[in-house]
Design a protein that fits this description.
499 residues; globular; 2 domains; 25 strands; five-stranded parallel β-sheet
Length: 499
């Protein structure tokens, strides 16, 4: 049985739910459905269940622009974020439009029919289902839900304890009174160390190289103050959100224009937190600030457990695993009962689905991004990729608003198709994420991610203020994005949709 909607959204995480809400808010009049592989909304925040899981961006900018986040925590934990996404979906009537348990395996565009045909597998029954739509939106993020990045460690077969990746945290993992080594230096490792140190005998964070970290208050003092002063929630959210967007941008801009000063400020703040108890070489990266994503420590929890001695940090390389721990290149041995491999993500586009245009398979690496939202030569489609140097949701919101602008423009002008068409001079060999960060997952994702354009609207800006103007107010008909009126064959599911 074929199921047809105007807009088919893949993924019911933060981006997919936001896109559905925007379709309603912008009064596009378009029918939509969401295909979600998991059994609940939330995406990343439903998948990750490791101790202490929390956002790595402040919630005033990580929340949707159209629906205030009412908490005062700077960073919120996973369960609260899942609840926020689910409540948003409920408020905008999105839940009845979601088909859970559907893994999308193929998305194919037919120019002759003017339709996307999407094949999904019901993972409970194993049966294939076919959906058609006029427009397709990929809201799957950019990593593989099945496989986190997990290098093979020398001698790991000799280790007698479990080696766990945070992406697949066992519900029955008991680390009480155990010696734990967390391999990694990113946001996940920095979250796990203080979260586990309360119950573990000792937690060691083992890193090959340091990451820039900064402490922020656990509760936003301005948000607390406005709540105490009984400022209306919507107004408080708007003011706090604008402030935090400006602070994010200023921090990033300082790191680009004066990296030495930015480095001195960040390291001085860490030194004030750890005192003389911790060697500063563990917090002094070789790269400049914001060449990789800055890690936030709410309430200084990481620094507190390091000062207390319940946790420690080691910067070294692994020589080999042993039966009872890890031997390092320096000769030091780290005793361990459990090893956590917080080593990052495996990058993947469209949840691993095969992409086709008029019967020809399309490789996402060969495509170029238009305004950071559309893909060159792919008609009637958008892939939502959030910011790497700010909150993901800031860009996801702007992309959804832009998509709704396009839909309403098509309706008002009598068009039924759009496609961004690049010339050879528009395309570069750089990943659309490569210009912002040098993180490991960004480098590994170079083989998968679409390209960064060489000029004009093909360049990914990663600047909220410029994107806001470009996507909300920039001309739609700019000579690059093409619109068409076509005589399309009869809708293969018209009777079903009508019924």
């Amino acid at each position: 049985m074929t199921r047809h909607v105007d807009v088919l959204i893949i993924g019911a995480g933060l981006s997919g739910i936001g896109m559905a809400c925007h379709l309603t808010r912008a009064r596009t009049g378009r029918s939509y459905a969401i295909l979600e592989r998991r059994s609940a909304v939330g995406g990343t925040w439903d998948l990750f269940r490791y101790p202490g899981i929390r956002s790595d961006s402040d919630m005033l900018t990580f929340g949707y622009g159209f629906r205030p986040w009412h908490g005062t925590k700077v960073l919120a934990d996973g369960p609260h974020i899942r609840r926020y996404i689910a409540d948003t979906a409920d408020e905008y009537g999105v839940l009845p439009h979601i088909r859970f348990g559907r893994k999308v395996v193929r998305a194919s565009w037919s120019g002759a029919e003017g339709l996307w045909t999407v094949e999904a597998v019901d993972e409970q029954t194993g049966e294939s289902e076919i959906y058609t739509s006029n427009f397709l939106v990929g809201c799957t993020g950019y990593y593989d839900y099945d496989n986190g990045y997990r290098p093979t460690f020398p001698g790991e077969e000799n280790f007698r304890g479990p080696i766990v990746h945070p992406q697949h945290w066992p519900e029955d993992l008991d680390y009480r009174g155990k010696r734990v080594v967390v391999i990694g230096s990113g946001a996940t490792a920095i979250t796990l160390v203080p979260a586990m140190s309360g119950d573990a005998e000792h937690v060691t964070m083992l890193q090959r190289s340091p990451t820039y970290v900064t402490a922020l208050p656990a509760d936003d003092p301005v948000a607390v103050g406005m709540k105490f002063a009984r400022v209306p929630a919507a107004a408080a959210y708007k003011v706090g959100r604008a402030r935090n967007i400006a602070l994010q941008r200023a921090s990033f801009q300082l790191s680009r224009t004066n990296p030495r000063l930015s480095r001195r400020l960040l390291l001085a703040a860490v030194r004030a937190q750890v005192g003389s108890a911790v060697d500063m070489r563990h917090f002094s990266p070789r790269y400049n600030p914001w060449d990789q994503r800055l890690c936030v420590v709410p309430g200084g929890d990481l620094f507190r457990v390091l000062r207390s001695g319940r946790a420690s940090i080691v910067t070294d390389h692994i020589e080999t695993f042993t039966e009872n721990g890890i031997r390092l290149v320096s000769g030091e041995e780290l005793p361990a009962d459990i090893v956590i491999s917080a080593t990052g993500l495996t990058v993947q586009m469209l949840g691993g689905a095969r992409l086709e245009v008029d019967g020809r398979e399309v490789v996402t690496r060969d495509l170029v991004s238009y305004k950071g939202t559309l893909l060159g030569n792919i008609p009637n489609a958008m892939v939502v990729i959030g910011y790497t140097n700010a909150s993901w949701t800031l860009k996801a919101d702007l992309a959804a608003e832009y998509f709704c602008r396009l839909l309403n423009h098509l309706r008002d002008k009598g068009y039924d198709r759009f496609v961004a068409v690049p010339t050879p001079e528009d395309i570069s060999d750089e990943s659309m994420m490569g210009g912002a960060l040098t993180s490991g997952y960004v480098q590994r994702g170079n083989a998968v991610m679409p390209r960064q354009g060489a000029r004009g609207p093909w360049q990914v800006i990663n600047n909220y203020f410029r994107d806001r103007t470009l996507l909300r107010k920039g001309p739609l008909e700019d000579g690059v994005l093409r619109f068409e009126r076509t005589t399309v064959a009869a809708d293969p599911a018209a009777e079903i949709r009508s019924a």
